[in-house]
Protein 1
Amino acid sequence: MSTLPDSTPNLITELPPDALLSAVTAALSTVRDPELDESIVDLGFVTEVALSGGRACIRLRLPTYFCSPNFAYLMVSDAHDAVGTIAGITSVSIVLEEHFAADEINAGVAAGAGFVGSFGAEASGELDELRRTFQRKAHTACLERACQQLLAAGWTVEGLSGARVRDLPVSSERDSLLRRRSDIGLSEKADAPIFVDDDGQPVPQALVGHRLRFAQTVRVSMDGNAHFCRGLLTTRYPHAAAEQRPRQFDQEVSR
Amino acid sequence: MYSKDGEDYFIVDAHIALWDAREQNQKNFHGKQFIDCFYDYHKNLSPESEVWPYEDYLYYGGDRLMKDLFVDGYVDHAIFQPAFLGEFYVNGFGQTEEAWALTQKHPDQLTYNHNFDPRNGQAGLDQLRRDAERFGLKGVKLYTADWNGASRGYKLTDPWSYRYLEACGELGIKNIHVHKGPTIRPLDRDSFDVADVDAAATDFTDLNFIVEHCGLPRLEDFCWIATQEPNVHAGLAVAMPFIHTRPHYFAQIIGELLYWVGEDKIQFSSDYAIWTPKWLIEKFVDFTMPADLTEYPELTTDVKRKILGLNAAAMYDLEVPAGLAIKIPAEPEAEVAVGASA
């Protein structure tokens, strides 16, 4: 359990208990598994949200005991940060359970020790670059989905190099892309080009086809990993199936 | 051999194990969790009729292995790819002596690959030389996420890894099966990243690098490097069973691999005993690409033959009986993956 520093913004009048619980759940919904680009709530990773006054205790579980400790750390740390900023929350405890590195992660996040502080010599740095890498992958996958929409509407592959934010039809694909653009610092303005590389540079027309093809592979890979992780979670915890929400843009119903 | 609709298939199962995860061999709680994780993989992706009781899964022994692969499972030749896991199991996970004895008893049906850990330094390098001679090694299985003392993994680009790979070249160990797992040092990097395979494949062009479970969960990174490195191959461990639970996703994986990696560099494996080969082979031979996936190269009978056995047979110099090889003319164009030329 870590107590939030006094400087935490807490200006709004305290919410009634039900509203506070909703606020905590909503905050947790913004926390994503970086590898799967999906909310930890939708994935069924959150097992308990308990409130006692302003003290929040959240329990998390993962599909396997050996899930990568760096991604696990990011999810625990992000959950801590997301809940900690809610007005009326005075302390937060995030408890990852049944994971080989749970003790290090839980203690490290509670102490605000950072990843290196939690894992010592086994880590050579913090997780910013790792997070960035996966935000880029998520952007690439969402870009591909949005481009498929444009292609279905009559755009040519080469033409995509001239596509702007304003050309995207109102849709969940558009919303998803804009959010990932924002994550990696790309503009959401109407005249911003959408077919850009990881650094925001427009992709030359001649390279659009190849890059779109690779983006498809990224999308297939992330979707597939999500299937696998969701399945493993429900194998490990049979009751979890009822707590998962279907993946957005799922092309196949699980058996 | 498997036969269906007048077509015969020579089968090489390129990734099998003979493990012992019984309680008396578990060193600690991690050993219990490791086999439980495998069992979850098994339960999650197997058809219900193929799910083993947990007790059987802990240890199955050589007789059952021979029956599951060669009596029931259509396999002509199988290759042991043992994981050591010395921090989790008293006598290791893959059972070296038992697997080697079985290989000596059935040399036409089994090949024994061993493993090494570059973190063991000079002593491990000396051991590798002795192992190469004892087992007549053609290949090794490297699990980069294996724990060793305080370390939670290593990379193929570590200096000692290169010394071991140099030795492999000298010793005729030409097939390096790389298995990525969820931990690696340093922990802040993506442990499934295959960039180290890319670097090693560039520097050791005389070796083949077979990336097990085709880089999953980083299919895209794997495809990217395999396109550029002619000596990087895809092992289908873990990917195969999706043919049952997620056929559309399975089609996409195979389609992506055919596009980027090409039909000559993909190897079937059941990952026995995580899954058993019989149902995987039956379903794969029956498999057709869904009508909505028009962008992928065709999965023809000859392509299936290559994946199910001929590719691995070529890599391991296994004799393919007359009539079981494919009859298509070898055109150089056909060897280049579509994605490679893009």
Note: The two ends of chain B are 36 Å apart (CA to CA).
Protein 2
Amino acid sequence: MKKMSLLFSSICLSLVCATVSFASGTIRIGALFSVTGPASFLGEPEKKTLELLVKELNEKGGINGQKLEAVIYDTGGDATKAVQLATKLIKDDKVSVIIGPSTTGESMAVIPVVEKWKIPMISCAAGIKITDPVKHWVFKTPANDHIAAEKILNYMASKKQKSIALLTVTDGFGASGREQIKTLAKQKGFTIVADEVYGPKDTDMTAQLTKIRGIKPDAIICWGTNPGPAVITRNVKQLGLKTPLYMSHGVASKKYIELAGADSAEGVMLPAGKLAVYDALPKGDSQYKLLKGYDQSYKKAYGTEASTFGGYAYDAFLLTANAIKKVGSTPEQIRTGIEQASKLVSVSGIFTMSPKDHNGLDLSAFEMVKVVKGDWALLK
Amino acid sequence: MQFDQILQYTLSGLSTGAIYALIGIGFSIIYNATGIINFAQGEFVMLGGLFTLSCLEFLKLPLWAAIPCAITASTVVGILFERLAIRPLRQPTPINLVIITIGGSILIRGLAMLVWGKDTHSVTPFSGDTPIAIGGATILPQHLWILAITLIIIIINKLYFYHTISGKAMRACSYNRRAAGLVGIDVRRMVLFSFIISSAMGAVAGIIIAPLTMTAYDVGVMLGLKGFCAAIIGGMSSGLSTVIGGLILGVLESLGAGLISSGYKDAIAFIILLLILFIRPQGLFGKSDSERV
């Protein structure tokens, strides 16, 4: 009995505390990340980043004297769960904005919910259909795949490489990249001479590469996330292929060079988000300071390097904080504030939103880099 | 089609096939001793690679010492698996046992994810990565290691099953468990032995392929399935026919990806599996009343 009453009183106390803090002006930010499950490589750094940023901001005294509180739920990469949790965030937790979900599928499922309840959502997924066509309450921070593809093709055009051999992974990322490259290549006058695929868990791609070798293209573009591209890089070395090899932004991390081996990866080119290569950027770059700060505080807090994926949550948080500071903290005001963001320097790039563009990034979000002696070097 | 392309497809296929063969033999050894398909076989491949990684990076052992350590560690996991999950079962019907092995594989994979994380890891090759040219094709030194070690293991296997008491006892169990029990063979012990041998072999497969394909907590699933295909083609024999089954599978996959379309690479493997199951369930080389060890 005594225990019960103790429990009861502590619940009362915590309720009182919660109301008190709410009354003093806490702004609640909801977040849906796939911290576990197959997309955990996205959700985990996103969650850590958001927690870190909220903590840092509150230590500095919040925004206009108001503290922030993050309510983060794990969707496990499940769209049904994401919808339920989104409803919970809106109805029970009364959040003013939702950051996430981490994947395109979940984001598409949650869109009707936020549109109905009129809560702004900033997705951390890359799928182009999230913000195309534009939805009133929906934004996203990762750059579209076609920007990365365009970056590669522009570079190839400058090197007068005309024929492309495609080697893409058979998952959502690879399929999307394959479509984008094919469409863009047609527009820009490239010819696709080989269109090969591989499975996400395949361990040997020499067969595909041997076929490509026989066709003699000007360049190979490989679209996938680790470990496939690392295997391909090694296979290219094994077969002694001298054709220039381009990778997607999906492997723009040191992990790729480590897996493929500095020796095999030498000369591989890819479009990278600036976070991956910030120490190679010129000191005058407008994102340099922010990227360095993010990487260092992330390293200090969690002991690992900050990743591009965590950066998506960083962007979403910065857009929100900026909107609250400039416009106000109701859902409608936050939405307007995000849409008005202009030249906002963040991790994924410099955001300039508009009623017609709810992503706000352009070609400058990526830099073409080349692997030189186990490190990134900027290509001009 | 140029000759050197075909040669490259074949060589790539043979080296992948050798790995399938090693894993396939692990499947059939347990099948013969216990009558169950051990779907956790692929996880031992994963454990072999990851234990080697730990021995190299955390214990700072040289490669020659890391390999036996990793094999031992994986074998211990195999023994624990048999002791804790297979042996205590009251009604060991094959379907129960198969489900347990599936559950065990999920558990082992989950634990591995917690211990080693979700990242892919690379292991350095045994003897460099300078390609060796054969005709117009190239292979890596690691491929030679794989082929050589597979060969050695098959020979040891043969010697064990035909020239040692416990090997003969295990064969006796596979012919008729009850009769084997009646002549004084401890059948349960033989089951344990079969798990020891196949987990050790799985680990060896995982260790020798890790430098080539890299390793992660979830590599076991696909490799396990391909190994299973190899074992089915070979008619669940733990001898040469499973090896040939693995090699056929590897070469067909590679030729299929090169000559037909890389999109159908896995489909080719599984179509072969289905065809074998429909037309020759006893395996490509088996007689209908085949000897199974």
Note: The first helix of chain A runs from residue 2 to 23.
